[in-house]
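INTERNAL AUDIT FORM
Audit reference: QA-55
Scope: verify that the stored structure record matches its stored sequence.
Auditor: D.O.
Record contents follow.
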Amino acid sequence: MTRAKLGIGALLLVAIAPPPARGNARAETEEARIADILQSALVKHGGDVNRCFEKALADTLDVAGKVELSVDVGDEGKVTRAVALDHDATTPVLLACLEASTATWVTVVPSLLM
């Protein structure tokens, strides 16, 4: 199992695509590999994140802040746990939606990146 932190900025609704790969280049450290995996997950699931913001906005127009999630990823790449660790989000609807949505994600299997 891999544990990592995933930061989601409330003002950044669309994840930024990672830089293009250089041939067969691979991230050199475990931390860099995990960061690459999380960035790919954010790109892949950007629509999920946006839907959470839309859901929160339907509840209140005062949606802002930064959310940091702790995610546990199982051997098959499925997120097995997602919990908001640190946040200054202004609505619990956003936090609950992000935790529930992230818990359904499947990422690249970390062992394949080594």
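Auditor finding: record pair retrieved intact. Strands lie at 2-9, 66-73, 79-87.
Action required: none
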